[in-house]
């Protein structure tokens, strides 16, 4: 995205009520520098984060771009021996020393909120992670980001890792989760992390991110909204505008909408199965735990070969058309069984029936709305 697009998206995300927005990597390009500069001057409530390597000049550049007010500097730290040996080719002592020096440099420039993003912490030994955490805090770090960079951990494993970090540093130090979707566990791991004592969850809209993606904002938001009693947690992020902002993101980066993804998938709130539709038409709560309206979505009913005659009879009844069982079977074959291609929206089939029987313009199919649980 160019700087103008990043500003547009950042302001839209701020409107959702998130606490902090990452603007980019100012030292990596003129574009990210300009985006950080512009966003820092237009955000009203949210704080913003600049990503930096453990290189003093990166931090100087980030502060030049975004100033110091409400500005968190996140310094990348190396949290595993495999990364130290094969990617960085430095020792543990060198890896820790460069991070400590950069924390001190950021604080000397007036940054009060320094975050240490511990890459590959999920595969790092406690001896390295604990020393890195304790010395970072002693040097002035305010936040530790515990990254499951390769998406390698199970929820129980990640929760235990977070609890160990929580025991190593004072309660005043924030701990953030950073999870990846490689095993399809980024949301489960993030939830395990906050239940184990993490204060913050790093998320992306739609889970957009490296490889299989990151923890999705909408999934964590749904969990906190619908499972508040079970978790003892809540979020005040705006659910209803979330899909609108996700659509903006997709437009800006030319991203196709996934078909079946939770909350934001094209068919996340749609059904074509006959037995499900029978229940849904009577009360959506039969097959719908998360309500689409809470996320700015609409419920969809599709008719295909898995749909039964019951949904067809419902449409005919709404059109005030009476047919016997034999005629119903004929209509079922012609309008559902023998039609080629994908499922059709219920409104399309209803309109076709109305045309066939010379009925008036069909009204929308009614579905009972139930309350949030």
Automatic annotation (TrEMBL):
Gene Ontology biological process terms from the UniProt entry: L-leucine biosynthetic process
Amino-acid biosynthesis among keywords: yes
GO MF annotations, alphabetized: 2-isopropylmalate synthase activity
Cited PANTHER family: 2-ISOPROPYLMALATE SYNTHASE 1, CHLOROPLASTIC-RELATED (PTHR10277:SF9), HOMOCITRATE SYNTHASE-RELATED (PTHR10277)
InterPro entries reported for this sequence: 2-IPM_HCS-like (IPR050073), Aldolase_TIM (IPR013785), LeuA/HCS_post-cat (IPR054691), PYR_CT (IPR000891)
Keywords: Amino-acid biosynthesis, Branched-chain amino acid biosynthesis, Leucine biosynthesis, Manganese, Pyruvate, Transferase
Domain of life per record: Bacteria
Pfam families xrefs: HCS_D2, HMGL-like
Gene3D superfamilies: 1.10.238.260, Aldolase class I (3.20.20.70)
Organism, as annotated: Rathayibacter tritici
All copies of domain Pyruvate carboxyltransferase, residue ranges: 1-243
Protein name: Pyruvate carboxyltransferase
Family: Belongs to the alpha-IPM synthase/homocitrate synthase family. LeuA type 1 subfamily.
């Amino acid at each position: 995205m160019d700087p103008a697009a990043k500003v547009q998206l950042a302001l839209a995300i701020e409107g959702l009520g998130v606490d902090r927005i990452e603007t980019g990597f100012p030292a990596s390009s003129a574009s990210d520098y300009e985006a950080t500069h512009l966003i820092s001057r237009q955000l009203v409530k949210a704080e913003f984060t600049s990503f930096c390597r453990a290189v003093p000049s990166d931090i100087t550049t980030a502060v030049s771009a975004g100033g110091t007010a409400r500005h968190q500097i996140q310094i990348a730290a190396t949290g595993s021996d495999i990364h130290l040996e094969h990617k960085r080719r430095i020792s543990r002592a060198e890896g820790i020393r460069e991070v400590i020096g950069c924390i001190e440099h950021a604080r000397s420039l007036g940054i009060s909120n320094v975050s240490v993003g511990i890459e590959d912490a999920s595969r790092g030994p406690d001896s390295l992670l604990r020393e890195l955490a304790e010395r970072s805090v002693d040097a002035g770090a305010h936040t530790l980001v515990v990254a499951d960079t390769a998406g390698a951990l199970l929820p129980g494993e990640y929760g235990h890792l977070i609890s160990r970090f929580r025991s190593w540093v004072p309660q005043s130090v924030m701990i953030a989760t950073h999870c990846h979707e490689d095993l399809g566990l980024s949301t489960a791991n993030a939830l395990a992390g906050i239940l184990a004592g993490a204060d913050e969850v790093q998320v992306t809209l739609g889970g957009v991110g490296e490889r299989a993606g990151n923890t999705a904002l909408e999934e964590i938001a749904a969990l906190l909204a619908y499972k508040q009693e079970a978790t003892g947690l809540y979020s005040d992020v705006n659910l209803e505008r979330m899909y609108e902002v996700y659509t903006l993101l997709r437009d800006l980066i030319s991203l196709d909408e996934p078909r079946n993804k939770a909350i934001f998938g094209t068919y996340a709130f749609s059904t074509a199965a006959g037995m499900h539709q029978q229940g849904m038409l009577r009360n959506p709560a039969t097959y719908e735990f998360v309500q689409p309206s809470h996320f700015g979505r609409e419920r969809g009913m599709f008719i295909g070969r898995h749909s039964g005659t019951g949904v067809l009879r419902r449409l005919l009844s709404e059109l005030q058309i009476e047919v016997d069982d034999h005629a119903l079977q004929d209509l079922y074959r012609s309008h559902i069984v023998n039609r080629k291609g994908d499922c059709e929206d219920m409104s399309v089939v209803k309109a076709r029936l109305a045309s066939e029987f010379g009925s008036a313009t069909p009204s929308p199919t009614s579905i009972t709305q139930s309350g949030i649980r």
